[in-house]
Structure prediction request, 147 residues.
Amino acid sequence: MLVSQTQGVGSPTIYSSQSLNQPKKAEAVQKDAQVSISQTANNAEHNWQTIASKYNVHNISAAEARAMSRELFEGGFIDSGQMIAIGAPISMTENPHEKIDLLGDMKRTFEISAASGGLSKTSREIYASAITTLENLAKTHRNNMPI
Prediction:
């Protein structure tokens, strides 16, 4: 009797019922694999790259942040809660065209609000997810910058 067990990446290990303590490696059969990416995935990647190239989350105005959050939402990258968190007014007296570090400000606000108990569990999750999205945009933006 033979029992096959897959061990992560690599060949399966074959055990015989007579020698369970002495595994023998079976020869790996390699086949060429073809992977195709759907047009929807290609479009999503293109849309993500376009958004990342248009907006620098470390130097963005409130008006741009709202436009970016709308594009992220319409592209299916964030939900409505995250759209609101990202596009929320920066202050009561905001200048919609003044550039700010949106990601840095959101991180500081999140830390202060979470430490003071000012956010519900759902709000924390939405805000943290919005910050993660902005961090990913920042990485993509940085990677797309000419050297």
